[in-house]
Write a structure and sequence with these properties.
The chain is an alpha/beta fold. It is built from 14 helices and 22 strands. Bound molecules: nicotinamide-adenine-dinucleotide (NAD). Nicotinamide-adenine-dinucleotide (NAD) binds next to helix 7 and helix 8.
């Protein structure tokens, strides 16, 4: 059997090896999930909800162990691992609260012996190929509503968050979700590709644009519901009427939290020329205040990059920005020693000729560009192939609203950033993907509306 090696990104040490799937075992698992689906759909909703409630209790009971496990394989600073698990509880509560209404059959017409109804039924067998950066969030955004609405789930955690993925599976099974209803598929991209070849009714993917495009191509002729949650190059504009220090502190956190490895990390900052210098000084101060170090320690804020390959991406962006005349204010390279360490890096004097301002960095690095006013800021914010989130810092709500309504992004922020709510849909424009999770729409997306036309004889 194939083995998947799991390394600790903070030290590069081997943590363990786990048995990985191959084409044959993936096909067997998919067949089991297919056979189990009608049985799971027949389980009353209250019982499916009870399983998820017990899963939630399992997460609470083992929160410290689960946080430590996630930190060991992803390098996420321990405080942030705990935050993710605590944040997950609110998402589960939201789905539990809303699912009944979303599954209720609607009578939309009843007249002269004719009745029309919409039934919300499960898609069937859902495959979820997931990312490592928030493995509990992005996994459970799919897994929980998919299971609640009566789907069976084939879940492939990222190869960089496999132990967490196995822990999710273990807790769901302990909570009473049958083993063939929720099936973990273990391995890297080849195993993900094998999953695509199975008979599935929906493919829900979180990851990079490059992989998303391959998946879209593979599934193109297959008429499988496809949802792709991809990367971003998320901009924020700081107006001259904003408090430069408060905005800088909020945005430094938005750019560097989780070592800059959030899909909605702040990745580009535009600052009005009138407060540019004050903002930049406060921003660099805030970044210098972030403690870089062992992610298992309580006070570490910046950990290692999860994937060693990303160091090359960051190095290339740094070299390109320097070559094109940007000013390096702090950081600028890898930190030596074992593990994937990169110094928090801030550039000013950047422009859109630089990769740093165009392509997702996914690391602790940010460019700050001076702008003359709203028109230039808006043009630059929209000068991107992505469109996940965007923000404006200003004391003037009407100005923020006028700007944000013209920005092409799935989520927009006024005086805040890097924020996700279970009550709001999470989606992107352009190469940030298609489809959505979270909110009531993120429950409906796992259902198929079936139209009933009923005439009394
Ligand atoms: P990735 O694309 O490298 O991998 C994602 C998953 O795809 C992994 O499970 C991987 O094994 C699998 N995979 C790789 N090749 C495959 C193939 N050919 N066929 C099928 N599956 C394949 O992405 P990543 O490094 O895990 O995640 C980082 C990216 O995810 C960033 O771009 C980030 O912005 C994005 N992301 C987006 C959101 C969102 O909600 N929009 C959330 C989190 C992360």
């Amino acid at each position: 059997m194939n083995q998947l090696a799991i390394h600790n990104p903070a030290s590069a040490a081997l943590i363990t090896q786990v048995p990985a799937d191959d084409t044959h075992s993936v096909a067997q698992k998919a067949a089991r999930a297919r056979a189990a689906q009608p049985l799971w759909l027949a389980v009353p909703l209250d019982e499916r909800k009870a399983c998820i409630t017990r899963f939630r209790a399992g997460v609470v009971a083992q929160l410290e162990t689960l946080a430590a496990l996630m930190t060991s394989e992803t390098g996420k600073p321990i405080r942030m691992s705990r935050n993710e698990l605590n944040g997950l509880l609110g998402r589960i509560d939201f789905f539990l609260l809303e699912v009944d209404l979303q599954l209720q059959t609607e009578t939309v017409f009843a007249e002269g012996g004719m009745t029309e109804r919409i039934e919300h039924t499960a898609l069937g067998v859902v495959a979820n190929i997931s990312a490592w950066n928030y493995p509990w969030f992005v996994g459970c955004n799919v897994i929980i509503p998919a299971l609640l609405t009566g789907n069976t789930v084939l879940y492939k955690p990222s190869e960089y968050a496999t132990l967490t993925g196995m822990a999710i599976a273990g807790l769901l099974h302990e909570a009473g979700v049958p083993k063939d209803v929720f099936v973990a598929v273990i391995g890297g991209g080849d195993v993900g590709a094998a999953l695509l070849a199975q008979k599935i009714d929906g493919l829900f993917f979180t990851g990079s644009y490059a992989t998303g495009a391959k998946i879209a191509q593979a599934l193109g002729p297959r008429m499988v519901k496809l949802q792709l949650e991809l990367g971003g190059k998320d901009p924020t504009y700081v107006c001259e009427d904003a408090d430069p220090k408060a905005a800088a502190e909020s945005l430094a956190d938005g750019a560097m939290y989780n070592t800059g490895q959030s899909c909605c990390s702040v990745e580009r900052i535009y600052v009005h020329e009138k407060i540019h210098d004050a903002f930049v000084a406060a921003f660099v101060d805030a970044v210098r205040g972030f403690k870089v170090g062992d992610p298992t320690l309580e006070d570490s804020y910046i950990g290692p990059l999860t994937r060693a390959q990303q160091i090359e991406v960051l190095d290339a962006q740094v070299a390109d920005a320097k070559a094109r005349g940007a000013t390096l204010l702090c950081g600028g390279g890898r930190l030596h020693g074992p593990g994937n360490w990169y110094a928090p890096t801030v550039f000013s004097g950047v422009d859109h000729s630089m990769e740093l301002m165009r392509e997702e960095s996914f690391g602790p690095i940010i460019g700050i560009q001076k702008v003359s006013g709203d028109e230039e800021a808006l043009r630059l914010m929209n000068d991107t192939r992505y469109g996940l989130t965007a923000g404006v810092f200003t004391s003037d709500e009407a100005r923020a609203s006028a700007l944000l309504s013209q920005v092409r992004a799935g989520s927009v922020y006024w005086n805040c950033c890097d924020r996700v709510s279970p009550r709001l849909p999470w989606s992107g424009y352009g190469d940030s993907g298609v489809g959505l999770t979270l909110s009531t729409y993120g429950i409906q997306t796992f259902t198929r509306p079936k139209a009933w036309h009923l005439r009394q004889a």
